[in-house]
Predict the 3D structure of the following.
Amino acid sequence: MMHHHLIANFKMNLLDSEIRSYISKLSQSSVLRKKRPDHLHIGFAPSFPYLQSCRDQLTHTLAPLDLYAQNISEASQGAHTGEVSAQQILDCGARGSIIGHSERRSIYHETPETLVKKINILKHLKMRAIYCLGEETSDLSDRDLDYLLKDQVKILKDFPPTQLIVAYEPQWAIGTGRDAAPQHIHKVSTYIRQHLDTAFGSVEAAGIPILYGGSVNARNLSSILDLDHISGALVGSASLEFDHFNTLIELFIDANL
Ligand code: PGA
């Protein structure tokens, strides 16, 4: 059974008291308390300083939510002032990390070489990678788009498929309110699925969820979840308000995935 994920990426937003109140509302939400199939997972990625308190709060409330970091260092430990290692986020309760988000690629100039180092560390620690990929602009030809995705998928080939979640996030749709059309998401996720088949073999690749991210909200989530190759969503802005994310959880659970 394919695993499906709805994951909130808080980015560099919310303070301790806001996150505590958010998790407390979430853990009491009737939507989350409803019995849901085991293959539907709901998670969120707060900033580093709040991972541990989120872990403690989730343990206390027994809320069935996955905790992720938004990034990890490319080094495993040592003299790297200001960095946070995968082992440290694991120690704080995260089961994995977002890797290669387009904001990290574009603002912090993360290269494929950097991403390979991060992926190898997660592999070694048996942690999940939510690997983001996608194009920067909306005007690429199909051929260039396919070539780019092939290149972005290639670096995953040695990563255990059972620890991998892929998130298709066109950069032009992130935080812009300009979501990609379902036909476009379908086309790109078909390319991604083919490249995953090539990298892992079709049997292993069949279990790797592909999420969509980029201006997901309560208006467009259901049509995105209807698409053949899409197994969930990575949500930024629309996850920051508890009520909005709670509606997304309801749509996700009711989608009969
Ligand atoms: P957005 O962000 O939903 O605000 O577009 C998505 C993301 O960056 O993961």
Observations:
- Strands lie at 4-9, 40-45, 66-67, 96-99, 128-133, 164-168, 210-213, 232-235.
